[in-house]
Amino acid sequence: MAKQTTKIALERIHTLFQQAQSTYPHNPQRAQRHIDLARKIAQRTRTHLPPHLRRQVCRKCNAYLVPGSTSRTRIRQRREPHVATTCLKCGNIQRHPLKEKQP
Amino acid sequence: MSPISPRNILRHELIGLEAGVVRSRNPSHRAVEGFIVDESMKTLVIEQDGESKRIPKRDATFIIKLPSGLVEVEGAALYGRPQDRVKKKIKRRW
Predict the structure, then answer these.
(1) Number of domains in chain B
(2) Could you tell me if residue B94 is inside a domain?
């Protein structure tokens, strides 16, 4: 029963992100609504957003990040090589290290 | 994964599916047909030719197109916020 809930939740999260992607060009607000719903479903069922989808949402303001439109992605070599994604709505920077974690 | 089916439709995502209103207490909603674009606790928003129509779930019966075929769903059975429906226990009534 509980397992089934997680499965359905993940499936719904995926479809919502797909919907957001296709509606974004002509209706950004609706796309944002889809993202909010996906996050709500994740919270309610206590499932994590899959890592590749988590990167499409701003950690600070929960905006849907579309490269070139609402986010800027740069590879930075200083300090530690990492990918820096800037949210163009709130200016928050998400940094993802390029080096694999050492076991 | 568990793709959407008539078995789990009450707990699954409706946004993005094609749907129509078969019966409604509001006669002007009876011919509405299109893609579901949004959902709230008590309504579904269907977009028809670029125009959004917000239809109360309670008063309508929907016909929803799934990848596996058409299903007719009583709107009252879909009652609940989208994120609450995932966990809803289904009472079988059909």
Answers:
(1) 1
(2) no
A35 close to B (CB below 8 A): no
A63-100 tens-digit pLDDT? 999 999 999 999 999 888 999 999 999 999 999 998 87
Chain B residues whose beta carbon lies within 8 Å of the beta carbon of residue A18: 16
Which amino acid is located at A59 in the chain?
R
Q: Could you tell me the CATH number of the domain that includes residue B23?
A: 2.30.30.210
Please state the ipTM of this predicted complex.
Answer: 0.86
β-bridge partners, A94:
A85
A84 neighbors A74 (Cβ within 8 angstroms) = yes
Q: Do B13 and A11 touch (CB under 8 A)?
A: yes
- Is B88 an interface residue toward A (CB < 8 Å)? no
- Tokens read off for A40: 């709500």
